[in-house]
Amino acid sequence: FLALPLQTGRIEPNYPKVCGHQGNVLDIKWNPFIENIIASCSEDTSVRIWEIPEGGLKRNMTEAVLELYGHSRRVGLVEWHPTTNNILFSAGYDYKVLIWNLDIGEPVKMIDCHTDVILCMSFNTDGSLLATTCKDKKLRVVEPRSGRVLQEASCKNHRVNRVVFLGSTKRLLTTGVSRWNTRQIALWDQEDLSMPLIEEEIDGLSGLLFPFYDADTHMLYLAGKGDGNIRYYEIGSEKPYLSYLMEFRSPAPQKGLGVMPKHGLDVSACEVFRFYKLITLKGLIEPISMIVPRRSETYQEDIYPMTPGTEPALTPDEWLSGVNRDPILVSLKEGYKRNSKIVFKAPVREKKSVVVNGIDLLENVPPRTENELLRMFFRQQDEIRRLKDELSQKDIRIRQLQLELKNFRNSPKNN
């Protein structure tokens, strides 16, 4: 994948890339607390942590600061914990969610309640709950540290694809497909998933609907894969809960969308949300700004309340011990100031196994795809090289000891 420069315009064809994976990259996420750290996952069954140097890439980056192996099949999703530094979640095609403590570079918990491929993960505001959608047509609310399923919905009439927690409203929104194969959205109470609060048909197109929620303005954005438009709604606390506002239209279809964190927005222009739209037909990434028109040039406090900043509220040990804490809020009135002094330090690891819940995740796992076979081949080649070096060193040491023993036997003192 590319780590793009700050300036706009067409980049060179040979612009440096992050290219250390041995399979297709399936998901990437920026660290919410350290702005030059990226997590990625791949078909090669690994999760990797990358540190982008100051000023951007000068050459291809092939060495990750941390490589994480624990899944037996390809890894489709990664998510950083919203309030805790160095806690990362990964979901694989082995139907497991692993929780990684990057302070030690090891998985510390495993969520094993899914019976098929996990499609989406979303946290509530303080990260105490995890919502997942799954190919088994179920929506789940999980307590991540114990792996206990608190609520579960079988969505037969609404095949769920994506889910997002709506801030601290104790509500969830899912996008999916109705029994008539039309795209629809559903609103749920996180404490009772027996029935959705509302279901609303969107259209008859086939592309996935990606939901994005802005807790500061209570706005929901819906963008369809392969569409050129982005719909936006206001979320209310009372019926009808969902109010359609407007629609951004564009003739260029989007394959994917990224979002600028809140502290990176232009508050002087009343920008409340910014998408980065991937247009594969033209080889472009196009920024799309959502701006609230205001005549006054003063700071608009009603559209910029206190918002989560770049300071973590918890350490990994605190969160794993059961502590929950809301995000540390900052004001955007003075513009973004980089106050966070956190630096990522990769742990030194010597362990040759990954044991979670008494199970060695790397023991005797057969490859299931060509990419998994390649990844295993590369790992075995590295292991063979290491063992050959170790063997040659031991051969040299044995010869040295044999010579010393011979000299000892032939010495006059011993005769």
Describe this structure in words.
Keywords: Coiled coil, Repeat, WD repeat. WD repeats lie at residues 18-60, 68-110, 111-152. The protein has 2 helices and 27 strands. By secondary structure, the chain is mainly beta. The protein has 2 domains: 25-330, YVTN repeat-like/Quinoprotein amine dehydrogenase (Methylamine Dehydrogenase, Chain H, 7 Propeller), CATH 2.130.10.10; 362-404. A 4-stranded antiparallel β-sheet has the order 1-2-3-4, with no helix packed on it. Strand 10 (130-134) and strand 11 (138-143) form a beta hairpin. The chain is elongated and about 100 Å long.
Beta strands, count? 27
Structural class: mainly beta
Termini, distance in Å?
71 Å
What portion of residues is helical? 10-25%
Keywords:
4-stranded antiparallel β-sheet, 37% strand, 415 residues, 2 helices, 2 domains, 11% helix, WD40/YVTN_repeat-like_dom_sf, mainly beta, Methylamine Dehydrogenase, Chain H, disordered N terminus
Entry summary:
This protein has 2 helices and 27 strands. The chain has helices spanning 316-320, 370-410; strands at 25-30, 37-42, 46-51, 66-69, 75-80, 87-92, 97-101, 106-111, 118-123, 130-134, 138-143, 148-154, 158-165, 171-178, 183-189, 198-203, 209-214, 219-224, 230-235, 242-248, 256-259, 271-279, 284-291, 307-308, 329-330, 355-356, 359-360. Pfam families: WD40, WD40_4.
Sequence-ordered SSE layout with sheet pairings:
Elements: E1 25-30, E2 37-42, E3 46-51, E4 66-69, E5 75-80, E6 87-92, E7 97-101, E8 106-111, E9 118-123, E10 130-134, E11 138-143, E12 148-154, E13 158-165, E14 171-178, E15 183-189, E16 198-203, E17 209-214, E18 219-224, E19 230-235, E20 242-248, E21 256-259, E22 271-279, E23 284-291, E24 307-308, H1 316-320, E25 329-330, E26 355-356, E27 359-360, H2 370-410
Antiparallel strand pairs: 1-2, 2-3, 3-4, 5-6, 6-7, 7-8, 9-10, 10-11, 11-12, 13-14, 14-15, 15-16, 17-18, 18-19, 19-20, 21-22, 22-23, 24-25, 26-27
